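Researcher: We're teaching a course module on how sequence relates to structure. For the next exercise, students receive a sequence and then see the predicted structure as tokens, so they can try to spot secondary structure elements on their own. Here is the exercise chain.
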Amino acid sequence: MQIAEFDIELKRKNIRNMRLTIKVDGTIHLSVPLLVSQAKAEQFALSKLDWLRHASARMQALREQCRSTVLPGLSRAEAEAFMRTTEARAEEWRRRMQAQQVTWRWRRMKRAWGVCSYAHTPPVITLNKRLAFLPPELTELVIVHELSHLFHRNHSPRFHEHVRRYLPDERQREQQLKTYTPVLRAGDT
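Model: And here is the predicted structure for the students to work with:
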């Protein structure tokens, strides 16, 4: 379906409401209930044209940012140096927070910047290799966030109070981190 300058993929689903989304790769999907007519779907998409233009431009800018840093990749030496430096900073935070000993691991993840697992002794905190492409203050947020899970296993108000004890600007950093979501999936689409 073509609406203005946008090519939109129409998907009929067993849902109640229409939903317009822009994927990381720039494709636009309109999900509609099974019995919604083509004309109604087009009318809905047309009513969202301003949003589409704004969101599409923002997504394009983020994709360009990702291409300029993530897709070419780091050399092995650069990646290893980043991981060593980050682990040293993480250990400093662990000691400052008086958290128990942990094992640090690294891997590429598509949906998380870090994960804390209590199934091991000592607990394991796995960090996403793509942290290398974030500003240092956001890497610091991920480290403090995961270490705080050693004290509070969920995202309760007490958990966030604990994080803010060390990073008073946690909310602002979380909002900034959300803008880097395409970095998680860059190169995977």
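Model: If you want an answer key for the exercise: The mean pLDDT is 88. The longest strand covers residues 6-13.
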